[in-house]
């Protein structure tokens, strides 16, 4: 599989192969080869339908029915590759050559790649396109950059401060402690502290312990499975107890949650009913509706277990089997390659659930979670030893 964007005879060309055929798209207009004009380029695909947009002029093309997932677990190359022999013969029209020009602001699946001297994994024969200490967007939040003998300085808008205008003035004198996040509140000329896991209080200065995690919205726990390398990923299992009074929310997400092609197993609520979604390589959604005589948002404790036996999925709610389904009788993909990452309640601060899950779930979980067990482990996950924010002690009361 591959996806390649290249410059061919003055036109931009997108080529991708999902395992069964190579699709080719080419822009209608040429790029200006004067070395002064910046062009805006968007390229990608949704399922097997590709799109290419150069300076606002968009073209799309749909491949014939077949594969619709890009299985490309390799490094991402910009401007060239370490060896031209790595380039698939179908990925380019002519003999592959490196790009000559300037590239900036690369965004892959809503995440910007930092094109600096230190952030990439490697590279060679790269120079500075800007030519000054200011560079591109060195000053954040619409700050203005000025070149000086010692480097650069930023002139910041009224609401921002810091060497690169990276800090809100409302957080410049914050009292948040214990690795808490300062969230500015411009309307009240103040701020709030979002506490790291294991801390609470207005300034996150009170240490807490819990075995029941309470999620209040904008909360999450990120757990790294220490036994991931030894797991048999064709036979996965997760079980937990939850309670809530909300009809929507992401309870658990086994997977990296970085891009649309990551494997995952997800548990959550949609319209007051339990919903389980699993992706073993090609996105397959399995919405589940349990008994009409009960509700998952009744503030009572519910016990849910999801078992994956290759492509056969079993879901138990309160120890009752509510779904037994083979999601792919062809056994095309049979392993849950979730990367050893499990999220509970939501994702990192600033990452919206509806965006990360591409609409499968609408919001963060509000409620309590306890007794999480992965696979056939004899011990429950110690949620206190994971990472996370805005999670509190749910051991007592509401």
UniProtKB/TrEMBL annotation:
Give the source's domain of life in one word: Eukaryota
* CDD domains, A to Z: EGF_CA, LamG
Gene Ontology BP annotations = developmental growth
Swiss-Prot/TrEMBL keywords = Calcium, Disulfide bond, EGF-like domain, Glycoprotein, Repeat, Signal
Domain (EGF-like): give its ranges.
Answer: 130-166, 167-205
InterPro entries per UniProt: ConA-like_dom_sf, EGF, Laminin_G, Neurexin-related_CASP
Domain Laminin G as annotated: residue spans: 1-129, 210-398
Q: Does the keyword Glycoprotein apply?
A: yes
Asked if the keyword Glycoprotein belongs to this entry, the reply reads yes
Q: Which PROSITE patterns match?
A: EGF_1, EGF_2, EGF_3, LAM_G_DOMAIN
Family annotation (SMART domains): EGF, LamG
Disulfide bonding pattern of the chain? 102-129, 156-165, 176-193, 195-204
How is this protein named in the record?
EYS protein
Organism (species): Chroicocephalus maculipennis
